């Protein structure tokens, strides 16, 4: 009998599998147990470690081994996330944000307890760790590996489930706003998710993906989101009149005032 053909997993394919496993658990609305967060912590910790190693490998393959002299020895120890982060800083000039380093340290401790001994944690703690590290994973991959890991999760409800995690949502918002500032992209508060992540150049929110056009009010001549504009048909013109909610309110108050003045004058 012939042996089935083996398949090789490089660092990135290994990381993708662990990431998909983590996200599938936390985006499962049917599973309400805290156990899914235990799995997610273990998996996102694994993903971060693999991505840091991949960046080191691109600098030089020997850097992923604890002892560089052990290069290419599959039985020798490779670096963990904290050592990888130190090497990235010293050798590649990549300094992870302080908050990320602290979260990584806490996650590493918790992951070790999960894998090797008794442990306890609460759901809020786990959500915070997983949310912040997921945001780091997407940002690091895009910035330092030129890899968009977000895309496959934006194809269905999965991304919506992720941005319901407060810590992930906040961390992503900060990253997006920073990018907007660096690239001088005009932005505004998104009418759907409420974050300052709406790209005015693309008429779309970089966080939640909401699309909406801007329309000019025919009275104040300011641009507003389509949801903030009312359309009124003109009897003597083929085009509609567009009036923003603020102007509609002003017009209504003006009509009420005129009606009151007419009544006072007995008209």
General description of the model:
This protein is mainly α and 267 residues long. The chain has two domains: 11-162; 215-264, no CATH class. It has eight helices and seven strands. The radius of gyration is 26 Å and the shape is elongated.
**Which value, in Å, is the CA radius of gyration?**
26 Å
Low-confidence stretches: none
Helix run count: 8
Apparent shape: elongated
Element pattern in H and E: HHHHHHHEEEEEEEH
What's the total count of β strands?
A: 7
Helix content: 40-55%
How far the N terminus sits from the C terminus, by CA atoms, comes to: 103 Å
Structural class: mainly alpha
As a percent range, the share of strand residues is 5-15%
For the record, the count of structural domains works out to: 2
What value does the average pLDDT take? 85
Strand line-up in the sheet with most strands:
1-2-3
Question: Which sheet architecture does the biggest sheet show?
Answer: 3 strands, antiparallel
Write out key terms for the chains shown:
8 helices; 267 residues; mainly alpha; elongated; two-stranded antiparallel sheet; 7 strands; 3-stranded antiparallel beta sheet; 2 domains
């Amino acid at each position: 009998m012939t042996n089935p053909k083996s398949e090789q997993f490089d660092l990135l394919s290994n990381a993708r599998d662990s990431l998909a496993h983590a996200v599938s658990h936390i985006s499962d609305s049917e599973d309400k147990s805290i156990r899914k967060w235990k799995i997610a912590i273990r998996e996102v910790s694994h993903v971060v470690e693999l991505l840091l190693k991949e960046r080191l490998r691109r600098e030089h393959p020997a850097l992923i081994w604890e002892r560089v002299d052990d290069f290419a020895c599959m039985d020798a120890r490779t670096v963990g996330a904290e050592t990888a982060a130190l090497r990235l800083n010293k050798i590649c000039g990549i300094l992870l944000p302080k908050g990320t380093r602290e979260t990584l340290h806490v996650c590493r401790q918790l992951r070790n307890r999960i894998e090797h001994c008794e442990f306890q944690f609460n759901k809020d703690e786990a959500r915070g760790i997983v949310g912040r590290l997921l945001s780091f994973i997407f940002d690091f991959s895009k910035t330092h590996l030129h890899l968009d890991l977000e895309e496959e999760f934006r194809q269905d409800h999965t991304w919506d489930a992720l941005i319901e995690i407060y810590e992930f949502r906040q961390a992503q918002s900060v990253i997006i706003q920073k990018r907007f500032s660096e690239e001088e992209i005009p932005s505004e508060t998104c009418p759907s998710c409420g974050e300052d992540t709406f790209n005015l150049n693309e008429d779309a929110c970089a966080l939640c993906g909401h699309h909406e056009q801007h329309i000019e009010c025919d009275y104040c001549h300011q641009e507003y989101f389509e949801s903030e504009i009312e359309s009124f048909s003109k009897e003597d013109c083929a085009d509609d009149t567009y009036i923003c909610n603020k102007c509609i309110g002003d017009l209504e108050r003006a009509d009420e005032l005129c009606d009151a003045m007419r009544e006072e004058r007995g008209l």
